[in-house]
Amino acid sequence: MDNLQLLVSGLANGCVYGLIALGFVLIYKATEAVNFAQGDFMMLGAFVTIGLTNTEYMGLPFWISLPISLSIMAAMGYALDRFVIRLMFGQSQTAVVILTIALGFVIRFVAGLIWGHNPQTLQNPLAGREVAFGGLVLGLEDVAVIVVTVLLTWGLYEFFNRTRLGLAMQGASQNQLAAYYMGIPVKRVQGLIWALAGAVACVAGILFAAKGSVDPNAGLMGIKAFAAAVIGGFGSLPGALAGGLIVGVIEPFASRYIAAGYSQIAPYALLLLVLIFRPNGLFSQTRVKKV
């Protein structure tokens, strides 16, 4: 029963990693750029929701704060693409990576100035509530994390594979010039995908803050989520979730059966093995570019 409890806890944490990894994959699928500030967007989304919801701040009802937070983070994602990333047009991917890393430092600094550096939790309707299955006791926050993550991943997968806009996003990723000649508004599509990634990061932040405390350094979780995206297959939405779940499950079991310090090393050891033996990821979707 203890192992089952560890498994559920690991799955809940892995879902948060998976959602952040989804943001990496969304942007990469549409623009072939890597946003290393994705974890910091998660942290900022959590603090925006805390600022709107918690009684010591604005004290709005949770279900009102939720769509406002999602809209704010989607707008920030769109603004990042519109006013920053597009200015990097023609520059190397390395320059974009360095830019997003620097942006992450700025976001952490600003969050610390506004909300402080002490850990905070999100006041939400599920706090402190539990559900029991036999001898297994689950917090409703953990259940909500798992359910929301699975539904969101399925929805995004269907969106990319069955809708005209999703197919347009994939087409723009494969060949922007060809997509432009086919009538696809490439810049607008890229802006929308950055907005979507911002909203997904906000969902991850809300779920993370609902089940535990958050501080500005929580944005560094993006490094672990990036490892999860690579393990799952960079470019695969289901792979991003699977990679997050694998990382989330490995941590508590490594801490329990090996040593507490190894829980932080285990995901990166797995990443190294994946890069050596299956460099495209465990669930990669091989794609040939059309020219």
Keywords:
291 residues; mainly alpha; two-stranded antiparallel ribbon; 11 helices; 69% helix; 3% strand
What does this protein look like?
This protein has one domain (15-219). It has eleven helices and two strands, in the order ααααββααααααα. The chain has helices at 2-31, 38-53, 62-83, 93-115, 140-162, 164-174, 176-181, 186-211, 221-232, 237-257, 266-277; strands at 130-133, 136-139. The protein has a two-stranded antiparallel sheet. Strand 1 (130-133) and strand 2 (136-139) form a beta hairpin. Helix 1 crosses helix 6 (164-174) and helix 2 packs antiparallel against helix 3. The longest helix has 30 residues, at 2-31. It starts with a helix and ends in a 14-residue tail after the last helix. 45% of the residues are buried.
Structure described in brief:
The chain is an all-alpha fold and 291 residues long.
Topology overview:
Blueprint: H1 2-31, H2 38-53, H3 62-83, H4 93-115, E1 130-133, E2 136-139, H5 140-162, H6 164-174, H7 176-181, H8 186-211, H9 221-232, H10 237-257, H11 266-277
Antiparallel strand pairs: 1-2
- Strand tally is 2
- Measured between the Cα atoms of the first and last residue, the distance is 54 Å
Shape: globular
Q: What structural class do the secondary elements suggest?
A: mainly alpha
